[in-house]
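Quarterly update from the structural biology core.
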Amino acid sequence: MAQDFDEQEHMRSGIAGGIAPGDAAGLAAPPPSARMLAGIAAITSVEFFETGLVMFSASPIMAGLSLTPEEFALAYTLYGVAAIFMLYKHQWMVERLGYRDFILGSLLVFALGGILCATATGVDQFTLGRILQGAGGATFFVAGRMEINRLPPESRFQGLLCFVGSLLGASAIAPVAAALLLGLGGWRALFWCIVPLAITVALIAGPHLSRATVAPGERSEEHWGWLLWLVLGIFGLQYAIHEIPSASNAARSPAFVMGAASAAALTLFAWRQWKKDRPLIDYRSLLQWRYLLGLTLYFFGYFMAGTSGFLLPIFFREGLGLPLTTTALVLSFGLFGSVAAAMLHAAVARRRPRPLAFMMTGLALYAIVCLAFSQARLLSDWHLLLVPVLLSGIAVAFFFGPVAFGTFTELPPKVFSHGYQVKNIVRQLGISSSIALSTMALQFFYARRLAALPEGFHPEWAQALHGLSDASAGLVAPLTLACSDLFFVLALCALPVALLVMWQRTFR
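Predicted structure, tokenized:
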């Protein structure tokens, strides 16, 4: 349930900071038409919709390709690495191609990645497809946001409403769409649908995208060599995060070494960017306490939301044994709760902002919901799940809303796009890290629960994750108990975030 609510601050003012790269100087932007707003909605929603499909269908995809949880997590990690790479190169490419050609090319790469995943017969092809999807789809969200900056100031509030509504709506309908596609054509249909989706977005948005480029003397430097350090650093760090907790004592030294080397590579890349006159991202202008605190809270929020978004479909389907359609409807119910809560927060915050109260309420609700899910195996009626699922959606909106209101308020307009790119890099890191760590933690708890079962009942981890039927009457599947254990840990994780929120004085 990792949604974005960072546009609410701009909803309050009605004015978006920053200028999209490639805008022609001195030209008045036309008022928004229905087609232009549809183009913004199409670009914004496509990556969120596809991510929702994959996260809901993680278990069927792994079963269909005989992937281990570690292989699936690796594919998602590389998706995030490719996405971060393109987020760094986003402005560089737009300056040279213009938004129209850049977005159309990204849609082509995104669709090719979907075709590779749909026709995959093993982990290698599937991973390559996910890498292409990460590279192609990473910047759709930023591009949709930057298109709003082309609107006249008096029309930007309307554009932002369209922007927020499209991304939240795409996230909310994704589980239902995934259930329908799985029922009609299996897991491969999830990726085949990307092709007509990409074509539709190209037809809707293409005619309204700017073709303007930036003069050669004003363009960002290339930085190709240094970006290799970035890619290696991010991948190595995420690999170390995944391996260190699960490795044996003898195997931990290489993982620690890789983690330290990755941190050094990322530090070197940041230092080099700091020294550049025309960096890919202007870090010097982003060193503001409010912005840095906002990024920290964003990471925690995306991590918690990403873990819940990955875990809940597995818990409901394989743990509690709910039908596919029922699982989709329950999750969509919670996501529509996020939509309502986000709009409520935006309306209240415009008159009487109470960031601390909203964030603490969101964290408290998140902890309560996780505790409820840790005991959900005891429920006799799936309808009782609707309340905690709804509260989880409200919790996400209440936490992200104040962070969104305050993170970008002090950034100069000239670096707004830079700050937004960094924020989306944090989003990719938070979600990919959450999936890697939750997979590792779930496997750990599963092994502990499996050891406590009677002798002779020892299903493999992959079998449990791909669908485990009860071995005997009254025997609780270890996967169900493992999910419950992980939800309890997630409830505890809300405590340090709550302490950070209470300690800080910026978002009050």
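The two ends are 25 Å apart (CA to CA).
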